[in-house]
Write a structure and sequence with these properties.
There is one protein chain. By secondary structure, this protein is mainly alpha-helical. It has a single domain, classed as Four Helix Bundle (Hemerythrin (Met), subunit A) (Up-down Bundle). 72% of the residues lie in helices and 0% in strands. It is built from seven helices and no strands. Helix 1 packs parallel to helix 4 and helix 2 runs antiparallel to helix 3.
């Protein structure tokens, strides 16, 4: 494996997860701001690693494997920590579960299709879903009612929760699209003459 800048950016997204998780245990406004900053920087690397890989002609099999894994690890860590610390609660747990279940389903589908040498490219709608989801998570990190970091006149938590619900709806649509595309490769074609 050759360490290119895009690969380093992707690896950095995984490397910051322990720091990001540890910041939740500070349970302070400072911890929230730093956690939001770390998460935002990690989310930004998701755009730049792909952009730089294409621009520099440094697309690799390892990068194609690692990029979605890094995204899923970051998002899953954020959602689990926010549920654990009450920043995602009550009905808002539903879109979080939908998003995590879809990510697991798509990962399994990609793994299955890779065994058949079939790719499952990321759709534009899925990219929008990722963007909305990342923004919503960043906002929700700051929306902790126990340690308010933004004036109460700005409905931070409501905005973040709405974004998470929107991301979940798009998640269902793109998950269905991916599953439908994958199902075509699961059943063998009927034998001739049958």
């Amino acid at each position: 494996m050759h360490l290119t800048l895009p690969i380093v950016l992707t690896l950095s997204r995984v490397a910051v997860i322990p720091i990001f998780v540890a910041l939740f245990f500070l349970e302070s406004a400072t911890g929230q701001w730093i956690a939001c900053g770390v998460f935002t920087l990690a989310a930004i690397t998701d755009f730049f690693d792909g952009y730089l890989a294409r621009a520099r002609g440094q697309i690799s099999a390892f990068g194609r494997f690692l990029d979605p894994v890094a995204d899923k690890l970051l998002v899953a860590s954020a959602m689990l920590m926010m549920v654990g610390f009450g920043q995602i609660a009550e009905l808002t747990i539903i879109p979080a579960v939908i998003i995590l279940c879809r990510e697991i389903m798509v990962s399994g589908l990609r793994e299955f299709l890779a065994g058949l040498s079939v790719g499952l490219p990321v759709s534009k709608l899925a990219k929008w879903k990722t963007t909305i989801q990342m923004v919503a998570i960043g906002i929700l990190i700051l929306g902790n009612a126990a340690h308010p970091v933004i004036p109460e006149t700005i409905p931070v938590r409501v905005i973040g929760e709405a974004g998470l619900w929107i991301a979940a709806v798009i998640t269902i649509i793109t998950g269905y699209d991916y599953l439908r595309a994958g199902l075509r490769h699961m059943d063998p074609p009927p034998a001739a003459g049958s």
